Amino acid sequence: MSALVGTRRMVRLILRRDRFVMPLWIVLLGLLPATLASGTRDLYPTLAQQEQYAQTAGTNPTFLALYGPLHASGIGGLVAQRVGFFPVVLAVISILTVVRHTRTEEDAGRRELLGATVLGRQAGLAAALLVTVCANLVFGLLMAVGLVGVGLPATGSYALGFGCALGGCVFTALAGLSAQLSEGAGAARAIALGTLGAAFVLRVAGDVGGPDSDAAWLSWLSPIGWSHAVRAYGDERWWVFALGAAVTVLLAVAAAALSARRDLGAGILPARLGPAEASPRLSGAFGLAWRLHRGLLLGWTITLALLGVVYGGVADGVRDMMNGSPQLEEMFQRMGGQSAIVDATLAAMLGTIGLIAAAYAVQAALRMRAEETGGRAEPVLATAVGRVTWVVSHLGFAVLGPTVALAAAGITAGLAHGANTDDVAGELPRVFAGAMVQLPAVWVLAGVATALVGLAPRLAGVSWAVFAAFLLVGQVGVLLGLSQKVLDLSPFTHIPRLPGGHASATPLLWLTLVAAVLVVAGLVGVRRRDVPVG
């Protein structure tokens, strides 16, 4: 029997399981650059304004680090730089997708059941790689068609779309390889995401000094840098796609070779033996929850702290972007009410950090469901640990974890912005308050996930759809012309715009109350329903 027998059926199975999530991110992310292009054209209607903005964004080290190099001064070039983070987003999605359909299936025992049928050894891995690569290519095509639809040159649009997809494809194959190295899905994700982090750092180190710096070659060591090296809307380098395709194929072949050499459920890297006796700290529900959540908490806290450094460092430089663009200045003034432009920018950036913290809150709350479906919750609940105690032990990290991460982001952003303005003592408290004020909205997302886990556990994954809806409303709702009633559905719409805006406790108290009601509903649901619910 061929090792690829059953691949087509595995592809159909993956497509059926991801029939809601995959089209969602492809369409939302794929069409967003077209919307961004229209908005950029409105902000910079003349060629002189576009070139003036390009001179700032193309030489400012902070913008080069955040978005990547700028290769053209027209609308296409500006959009290409602003979507410079898309390859990272696609890489994260691709890694999570591949690990979920390979290593997670083995951990849950479903791969072994499928292996008992007429299924080749490599069919599962091949199907996961094939579906994820195709999803990235469809995304690139949709993005290119959208950009052509708003009047941008077709050559640059296709280069940009497939250039972003290039990063996703490379990390798709890398995720397939990491799934063979480790003995569990968590370690596989850590290896792949850690490699992505290193690739991002290499890209930043290579780009921050400009193309003539001595460190520019470092970006060629990063697949994320290859996406930028395509130079969309500039003098396109089509040969970079051959480099990315070759590395993708090489990694996929290596993954297949390692998959053929290991046992099902095992990894190439030897597993580290644990202590003969468990630590006393694991004797209770809260100690076990700390063990399960500590890596996640550390990772998100470091990520948000670094993001705070970047946002705090770039905020003061936004003044330069306003030169020659009264429309952009007016837009930022509206965002910040009567506050200064820099305050309005900081408030918008801290709102983005709040949305990211909400993703952490959802992930932490859904850990309860993962423990349940993985069969690990039932043995714990068979002991003296009550259901409410078990839920609260996990929920503590969904509530307090984002608090710690947001505090770290607020402190680093305040320190960076204060250092730029030579007023750390004055700016740190203001920026810190702007970060912490996001918490009630974050807690609402944690409450939604908890309520779904308790009342409708099979629909717990809908929490991510709710998060995506709030993300869409917050990021492009105004540009899409959504009504205020629709915008008000997002809890982040009601957060005071700090620093610089008017602070009011009323919306924060209401949001906290909504979150508390959702959490209580989830607790009641878990107490009354069967555990586990498959």
Describe the structure.
By secondary structure, this protein is an all-alpha fold. It has 25 helices and no strands. The longest helix is centred in the last third of the chain and has 35 residues. The mean pLDDT is 84.
Query: Element order, helices and strands?
Result: HHHHHHHHHHHHHHHHHHHHHHHHH
How many distinct beta strands?
0
Task: Name the poorly predicted regions.
Answer: none
What percentage of residues falls in helices of 4 or more residues? over 70%
The total of helices stands at 25
The overall pLDDT average reads 84
- Indicate the proportion of strand residues: under 5%
Q: Termini distance?
A: 33 Å
Radius of gyration: 24 Å
Describe the global form: globular
Summarize it.
This protein is mainly alpha-helical and 534 residues long. The chain is 72% helix and 0% strand. The protein has 25 helices and no strands.
Per-chain topology:
Elements: H1 7-17, H2 21-43, H3 47-57, H4 61-67, H5 75-82, H6 86-101, H7 103-108, H8 110-115, H9 123-149, H10 154-181, H11 185-207, H12 223-229, H13 239-261, H14 285-315, H15 318-322, H16 326-335, H17 341-365, H18 367-373, H19 377-381, H20 387-421, H21 424-436, H22 439-455, H23 462-476, H24 484-487, H25 505-528
